[in-house]
Amino acid sequence: MSNTYTQGMLRDGALEGKVILVTGGGTGLGKSMCQYFSELGAKLVITSRRQEVLDATAAEITEATGNEVLAISGDVRNYEDVERVIQTAYDKFGQVDVLVNNAAGNFVSPTERLSANAFNSVIGIVLMGSVNYTLALGKRWIADKHKGSVLSVVTTYAWTGSGYVVPSACAKSGVLAMTRSLAAEWGHKYGIRLNAVAPGPFPTKGAWDRLLPGDLKEKFDPANRIPVKRNGEHQELSNLCAYLVSDFSAYVNGEVVTIDGGEWLFGAGQFTGFSAVTDEMWDMLAAMRAGK
Ligand code: HXC
Ligand code: NAP
Prior knowledge:
Blueprint lengths: L18 E5 L4 H12 L3 E5 L3 H15 L3 E3 L7 H15 L4 E4 L14 H29 L4 E5 L3 H4 L5 H25 L2 E7 L5 H7 L4 H4 L14 H12 L10 E4 L3 H6 L10 H11 L3
Parallel strand pairs: 1-2, 1-4, 2-3, 4-5, 5-6, 6-7
Helix pairs in contact: 1-2, 1-9, 3-4, 4-6
This protein binds hexanoyl-coenzyme A and NADP nicotinamide-adenine-dinucleotide phosphate (NAP).
C-alpha cells in the first residue's frame, strides 16, 4: 500500500458543480492538481501558450475521469488573451467558479547578469499574469454577484526573498501581497476569497530542468536540507489545493499555506545547523560544562 500522502484526500464528488480555470494547467504541478480536481468532479479550463500540450493533457484527463476539460491557448501576459480565454470558458460552461494562478516563468542566474528584459519576462508571467487573470475574472464575478475564489501558487521565498531567482522572488511576493490585499477588499465587499500555497521543492520537468540543470540536481539536492528528508509528492500538494478551492475551506481567506517539509524554517533558524553536532560532541560539551 502506498503512503497516505500519495493518496487522494477529499471525498468523491467534492468538487462537483465547480468550473475551475488553471493557468499553466498542461504541465507539472498544474497538471497534477487538474487531474485530481477532475477526479473529484470539477469541470476544467486549462490555459498556457502551447495548444498541443494543453490538448494532450485535456485528452488524458477526460479519458481518466470522464469529466470535461476545455483547453485554450493564450499568454497570461496579454490582457486580450486573458479576456478571450475567460469568454471562451463562459461560452462553454456558463460559469467559472475558481481561478488557480499557477503559470510561472523562472531561471537561476546571478542578478547582475540579467537584462532588463529578462526581469520583465518573469515579472510579466508571474506577477502581471496573476494580476491579469484575477482582475479580469474578479470584475466578472463582481458584476454577476458571483462569490468565486482564487488560489495562487507562490513559493516560500515570497516572504524571505532569495538570491539567484530575484525576478521570481519579486513577482511571487507581489502575488502574495495581492492575495492578502484582495482577501480583505473583495472578501469584505463581495464574498470573494483569495488564498495561496507556498510549495517547497516538488520535482517537475519545468522547474527541475531550469533551476537545477546538469549535475546541480545531485550537488544541491533540496532533500538534504528538508527536515522531513524528501521532496514533495504531487498528490499531497493536489490534496491541499483541492481543499482550498473547495467549499470546505469557506472560512479560510487571505492565507498562504506552506507545504515544504519545514525547508524554509530549517534555513532560517539560527542554530538549526547544529544537526551536524554528533552525540559524542554533545557529550564532550556537557562534560566541559560540568567542569570535568
Ligand atoms: C538569464 C534569460 C534566461 C536565463 C531567458 N533569459 N532565459 N536570462 N538566464 N536562463 C532572458 C532572455 O535572454 C531575454 O532577454 C528574456 O529573458 C526573455 O527571454 P525569452 O526566451 O524571449 O522569454 P519568454 O519566451 O518570455 O520565456 C520565458 C522564460 C522561459 C521564463 C524565459 O524560461 C519560460 O518560458 N519558462 C516557463 C516555465 C518555467 O520557467 N517553469 C519553471 C517554474 S518553477 P533579452 O535581453 O536577451 O531579450 C518555479 C519554482 C520555484 O517558479 C521554486 C523551486 C523550488
Ligand atoms: P512548469 O511545469 O514549468 O509550469 C509552468 C507552466 O506555466 C507551464 O505549463 C507553462 O506552459 C505555463 N506558462 C509559462 N509562461 C506562460 C505564459 N506566458 N502564459 C501562459 N502560460 C505560461 O513548472 P511547475 O514546477 O509545475 O510550476 C508550477 C507552479 O508551481 C509555478 O507557479 C511555480 O512557481 C510553482 N512552484 C513550483 C515549485 C516546484 O518545486 N516545482 C516550487 C515552488 C513553486 P507553456 O510553456 O505552454 O506556456
